[in-house]
Amino acid sequence: MDKSANIDQLIEQFKTLPGGLLPLLRAVKHAVGYIPDESVPQIAKGFNLSRAEVHGVISFYHDFNTSPGGQHCVQICRAEACQSMGSRQIEAHAKKSLGIEYGETTKDGKVTLQPVYCLGNCACSPSIRINDDIHARVSAASFDQLMSELCSPVTNDVGAKK
Amino acid sequence: MSMTFFIPQDTTALALGSDSVALTITSELKERGLEGEIIRNGSRGMFWLEPLLEVEIDGSRLGFGPVKPSDVPGILESLNSHDKNTKPGNHPLFLGKVDQIDYLARQQRLTFSRAGVGDPLCIENYQRLSGFVGLTHAIKLKSQEIVDQIKDSGLRGRGGAAFPAGIKWQTVLDTAGEQKYIVCNADEGDSGTFADRLLMEADPYQLIEGMAIAGLAVGANQGYIYLRSEYPVAHKILNQAIERATEAGFLGENICSSGNDFFLEVRLGAGAYICGEETSLLESLEGKRGMVRAKPPLPAIEGLFGKPTVVNNVLTLGAVATILEQGSKTYKDFGMGRSRGTLAVQLAGNVKRGGVIELAFGVTLREVVEGFGCGTYSGRPIRAIQMGGPLGAFLPESQWDTPLDYESFAAIKAMIGHGGIVVFDDTVDMAAQARFAMEFCAVESCGKCTPCRIGATRGVEVIDRIVQNQDRDNNLILLTDLCDTMELGSLCAMGGMTPFPVRSALTYFTEDFGGESPREN
What we know:
The structure holds 2 protein chains of 2 kinds.
Chain A: H1 3-14, H2 21-32, H3 39-47, H4 51-60, E1 72-77, H5 80-83, H6 87-98, E2 111-116, E3 128-130, E4 133-135, H7 140-151
Parallel strand pairs in A: 1-2
Antiparallel strand pairs in A: 1-3, 3-4
Helix pairs in contact in A: 1-2, 1-3, 3-4
Chain B: E1 4-6, H1 11-15, H2 18-32, E2 37-39, E3 53-57, E4 60-64, H3 72-79, E5 94-97, H4 102-105, H5 123-128, H6 133-140, H7 143-153, H8 165-174, E6 181-186, H9 195-202, H10 204-218, E7 222-227, H11 232-247, E8 263-268, H12 278-285, E9 309-313, H13 314-326, H14 328-332, E10 335-336, E11 339-340, E12 342-349, E13 355-360, H15 365-372, E14 382-387, E15 394-395, H16 406-411, E16 420-425, H17 430-444, H18 450-467, H19 472-489, H20 493-497, H21 499-508
Parallel strand pairs in B: 1-2, 6-7, 6-9, 7-8, 12-16
Antiparallel strand pairs in B: 1-3, 3-4, 4-5, 10-11, 12-13, 14-15, 14-16
Helix pairs in contact in B: 6-10, 6-13, 7-8, 7-10, 9-10, 9-11, 10-13, 17-18, 17-21, 18-19, 19-21
């Protein structure tokens, strides 16, 4: 199914839901991987909003990326509890070892690196999230191990567990 | 001998590998031809012991932890050993009976009494542990009587603002309207907090019960749980719990044959700290940018979609279920001063024994951090404690004897907030932490008011200049002035309280800001 037809179907599904724009945007992200710019007029029409309003909502929230990310989303917690346990060093290590900054994707398209402010795992910091899995007490060595598992051919599926 | 194994499935236990432990137990039992049931419970909140394996034998629960998959064979051998030298008690990870572990035994658990006991999604288990008793009581009461119970209990909002819950409910009850809403604020964004998450993952029916009671109390038939997207495990558990509670008649049409409807839905946020502020949360629930609203009108009068709305934190609604079950007097008997009931303290950061510690208000910060936390994880001295999330003050040792009570904390220009405690050892750079407070505010500000939107960005720059010793005295004056402007001129706590960590860092940890002489305050 092509992208815009798919999005049309989702708009139909969510447009009558009270406060349905956020659930719709989540659904679009889930289906397409990001919120395509060209879907904005389509969504605006479906929700009887201006394009500016839809764009405003998309740009407000960290979760709504408007370009495709990598195969895996790796988030590093930047919040205070993780900082107290050395997350700044993990952050620096991750950027260096992956060769990317926050918001960027590795050349092979495997990993997109994002900051996150708290994963609610603060008693066992520092924490990172890989897709929907959270990892506790991360060190530079265990970060490298997790990354090599992500990139090994056996566990290539999104959300794959070790 | 029949054995039941409990292995938690909450976020922290999973993050520490509890799935692999569960898999190993299954395969080891099979290999040994042993019988045993495996239950994935919620965590007890003793996160320093996770993955905590509990084994029920002859009615008592024995604990082992923290367990790695490689520890499983040895534990199984000890459980089946008849030789007294290799019995469970001699296993290095043996913790004794779980409910007698000091960390747990010393707590006063009301809200978290069920956490970790069984499968969080098992309704029978919930009911066996007095679940839905509060709702059954509430159904027999008039709306005003329910509200009176909450007022009498002295319950104050646990999200951070500590507003009396009963008064909020009264306003919603008194406001005429066909459609009213109950909104649960589950956007637990403060660093160092995870009690909402634990309740949702380990005892979700308690939240559901509290929300249904709130619905009966104010005449609302629709509830929303606004959950942060950083909590995928809680999301899954809540959705399953709502489905099961609906099937069992505790949610949906005509709940418990009371003639009242209560529908409940989880809505995910999209990664915005500000949406933990109640008016921004309501905007977000309406599908808009999470821009803070000016008050008045209060959400209790014009809230979600312009209708009268109760907005309460997860733990506030959890406490509601306890109050309706055990009575307002029992609840009120805990605590000190105007802070009644229990506080779920969350001990986090650089601490040896982190976790959820539920205690009556009034215990001192030091008793929690030293008595429960047992010092830092790194083994170095504690230098600073941040209480109440990213908008909470950094407390030097001279303030650690402050009792955990809303008014006592307000008196030292600090706050309890949602009860999160983040411990820092002596390697912390407090100027970097002050800068981070401003940086965080700049990233997360909704942008509606100038002091917060612009002030935070300027704050980062001014702190940088102070640390670099550029025109130091004038920049210190400027920073103080900027903090005043943000505190007095911001629309909500984001801009209004970001100065708390900044000022406290500057006041009590001056030496980290460079310069020659400590600044007199």
